[in-house]
Structures are given as C-alpha cells and as structure tokens.
Amino acid sequence: MPEASASAGSVVLACEGVTKSYGGVRAVDSVTLSVPSQGLFGLCGFNGAGKSTLFNLLAGSVRADEGMVRIDGRDATGWSAMRRARSGVARTWQTVRLALGRTTLDNVAAACLAAPGQWMLGALWRPQAAPARERAWAALESLGIGHLGGRLVDGLTLEDQRLTELARALVSDPRVLLADEPASGLSSAQRTVLAGALTAISKDRAVVVVEHDLDMLTSISEHIWAMVEGRLAFSGDVETFRTSPVHADLRGIEQA
Amino acid sequence: MTEPAAAESGTLPGPAPGSPESPAAVHQVRRRDPVPLGAGVCVAGVGALVLAAMNGSYLGLTVTTGVCFAIVTVGMVLQLGYSRQLAFSQSVFMGLGAYGMGVLETKYGFSSLESLLAVIGLALVTSLLIGAVVTRAPGLALALATLLMPLFIYQLATYSNWLGSFAGINGVLPLVTGADYTTTLVLSGIVCAVLLGIATAIVFRVIRSGVGLQLMAMAADERLAESLGISLRQRRLEVFVLPSVLAAVGGAAIASVQGIVTPDLLSETSEITLLLMVFVAGRRSIVGAIVGAVVIEYLTTSTSFISTNLGIIEGIALLVILIVEPDGVAGAIDRLLGRRTDQWAAKLRSRVPAGLLARGGSGGA
User: Fold this and answer.
1) For residue A76, how many C-alpha atoms fall within 13 Å in the half-sphere facing its CB?
2) Fewer Cβ neighbours under 10 Å: the N or C end of chain B?
3) CB of A131 within 8 A of CB of A162?
4) Each residue's pLDDT tens digit, B53-66
C-alpha cells in the first residue's frame, strides 16, 4: 500500500479503506488517502480506474460499502452530499452540469446563499438573491468571466461553461475543491489558462484534480495519486511519480 | 480568456471597459426587487377592473371562476413549471378548500372569512403531513404517489352523505355579500382578483429569491443541486405545500363564487383541466397560467360541444401541446421573438460597416 498522505499539515478531507462495488465489480477498493488543507493534488489513472467513483464517495454523491470518510477529522461517512457541501467540500463534474436557459450569474448564485437552508416562507421577507448575485459576480470576475454574467449558459463555449462551473464551486468559499476532469474537451491554450486558474485557487485551499492530461497534471500538482483497477497504486511527489512504473504505463496508453 | 499569459496570475482578461459586455454593464444587481409586489398589484388591479366592468353578467361569473382557477394554476407554475415536481394532488387540495368552506359554513355556522382562514390552516397542515410522505419519492415516483389521490378522494366524497354525496353541498356563502346578486358577484370577483394578486406576488417573490435560484438548480439536476448544499427534501416539501395551500384557497373561492361544491371538482378530469390550463399558455409563465385558466374556463362553460366532450378534447389538446410545444404559447412566442430578434440583428450587421462592429463586439459570440 503506497503512502497515501499528501504532505504534512492539517487534513481537511480523508478516507480510510473506502470501498464501492457495482454488481461484482469493485470500482473503488480499500482506498485510503488524506488531503491537506492547502495545495493542488492530482489524481490520475486509466479509464475505469475508479477516480470519479472515489470523487463521488468523497463528495457524498455515492455511499461507500465499506470504510470511512472524514471531513476536518469528523466522521462524515453517513453525511449526505448536501451536508458535505455545506461543510466545505465543493466539486465540479466530468460532464458540464449547468441549468440551461438561465444566466451564468444565476447558475453561480444558486450555490452561494448566505442561508442555504432558509425556509421558503422566509424568502418572502429576505429573498437573499441580490447578495448572492453580487458574490456570484465577484467569483466570475475572479476567473475573468464577469462579463458573461448576463449571458445564458446555453450559448457559452465549453471553456466558459467549465469556468462557470469552477466559479460556482468556488463561490461558497469551500475548503476543498474536487475538480473532475476540468480540462476535458479544452484546447491546449485553454488548458494553460485553466491550469493557471487552478493554481491560483489552490493558494488558500485544497484542490484535488482528476485529469488524463499527465503533462498538465504534473505541471500543476504538488502530489500525485494514481489509481489502477480501483486501488491506489501510487502516492507521492511529482518527481517520484515521473519515474514510477504507473507513469510509464499511463504514458504508454496516452501515446497509443 | 484567450491569452495564456494571464493564466500565471489566475486572473483572466475580459472585454474592454466600454464594450457592451463590460463588467460595469453586466453587474447591475438590484438590492430591492419591486417586481413581485408590482406584478401582484397589477394582476389584482386589472382583474378587479375587468370584473367590475362585467357588472355581474354570466360572463363575469365565468371569468370570476377562471380567476379562482388561476389561483391554483399560479401555484402549479412554481411546482410543475419552475421546480419540475409533477404531482397530481392539486384537485384534491382544491376540493379540500371547497368542501372545507361548504362544511364549515353550512354545518358549523362559520363566516366566509373564518372558513377561508380555517381552510388555509387545514390545507397547510394536511399538505405538510401528506408532503412529508410523498415528497420522499423523487421525480416520476412523486407523480405516481399522488396519482391515486384524486380517485380516492372523489370516491370518498361521492359515498359520504356528510359531504352531500353526488349532489355535494349547497348554500356556500359568497366571500363578500352585497345588496343584490349583481353587487355580490362583482364584490366577490374583486376579492378573488385580490387573492390572485397575492398568490402572484408570493410565487413571483419565491421564484426571484435565493430559494428560487435553488429551485432552478434542483429542476435542472437534483444530484447537482445536492452537491451545491441544497436540501432536496426541504425544497420538495415546500414546493408541494405552497401550491397545495394556494389550490385550497382557489377551491374555497370557487365554492364561494358558485355557492355550491360538488365532487366534480375532485375528479381526475378536473386535474387534467388544471394541467391543460398550465400547459396551454406555458408552464413557466405566471401570466400564461392566469390567462390559460380564464380562457379554458370560458371555453368549457360557454361552448356546449366542449363541455359535453370535455375529457376527449382536453386529452387530445394536452397530448398535442406536449408533443408540439411543451412550453406552450409563451414558449412559442419566446421562440418567435428570438428568431425575429436574430433576423433584426442579422439585418443590422449587414448594414453597419464591419469596422464599427469589430470595435463594439469584443465579447459577443
């Protein structure tokens, strides 16, 4: 079992021996890892290695069959995705998920109400929409797409849609961001821009990125985890990863 | 965001300050939102004026009943159109409001105001209890969980002598009593218009609030909404309860205007009529839901062919709408206006010199 802790420092998100099976297939098999409270960490592996399932387990979108998930040291295994999100775990999705027919601003604002659990009756007196839209606009602006706030998301380019998703994940000021293949479908130039944005974001929070683009991943990450057939096959710094057999295998697939 | 150099800092370039999409142009968030109150006052005012102008005629009675149905359909816009929670329980709560008024007034001597307040309370408690169970079922399961409710309640009403069986309950008091029938009908119509105005303002306010933003995310993708920290269970319950209470108010108003409540109000045909009222004009349009309710009520009561063959005609109409234009008339108008705007923009581009467009269109795609 490889060393699964990324580096020293307080751990914001961790899992211990988490396992998830679909039918007879173990999508994630006894994975243990710890995410420190600050920095950018890469998660890679072949297609079907269990990366997205692990993200779903960490974010609470899927319940683990075995094992434990901790957020800030507290047992969060039974927590819903909603509770984990409110505890500071934000995520983006492998395929873009936006509310079509609505503006970029509204898509982001939906994630940043000061009181997300406010009852509907309370909304009649304190609608919350204006401050949420102001925060949303600030988040869009920080990623350089504030000018798209009034545009419908339907008409945005894939690059802008991915940045909108990123803004939506960041607007609630999460402690850890799980970004699932954020560069998927983007051009080389767009990847460079995205990599810069992710690096900037990771200055004051933990960012875990699932990515197939090894060049991008190794250029921005401090620590790499690699999964093979549901198991954690590698955990270490980027230099060690570059000389590991897993890296060679992944490179082989990439070049093929 | 096309300059890689900007990636170093993580801040990306936007359009030029003077361009149409500059932050200053886009970022105009109003702290106060006068629209819901304005819309409510507008609906109440226009409704009251129209009904007063009809001066207690038969058409006035029909339109007043349509206004009562509109109270129900406005709630359905929030539930079905905006939040995409399909529940077949509106006619049940409409019946609860109507029968509540009838029972309380004819058997227990309540005044119409007391009955209305009691009915609102009863609908609130009942919808909370029922909603707590059925809203655990997501999506299609919610529809199935509520599908049998109208059938069960209809059977109950027709077999219960206490509820008047097939004849229903006669002698329901008007909301306001005037000197004569005409004045009573006009005053009742105005009260119904005010109730519709209040319902419109409430639904508008919710839709335009932060909760409305969450409902928008929930309607788009429930899994996504949960990952944004939105409590699906809470929101599903709320979008079940508020429209149910509005349906009860609408039902109470219908019984008061017509002076009688019969089991027909609870039937599955009644549920289909409500769906048609919402879908014809556009399930996401509050104005559409109001106009749809009034127009369909008019057509079903004033045309003998339609009223005789109501089930067949409504079934076919609903089917055609769902296939041809699921967003109803409002959706079709939006699309036509969009095409027209595109055509205007294309004409404009062909007339304006290319240099001018290049200077002003840095962000436009």
Assistant:
1) 26
2) C
3) no
4) 998 899 999 999 99
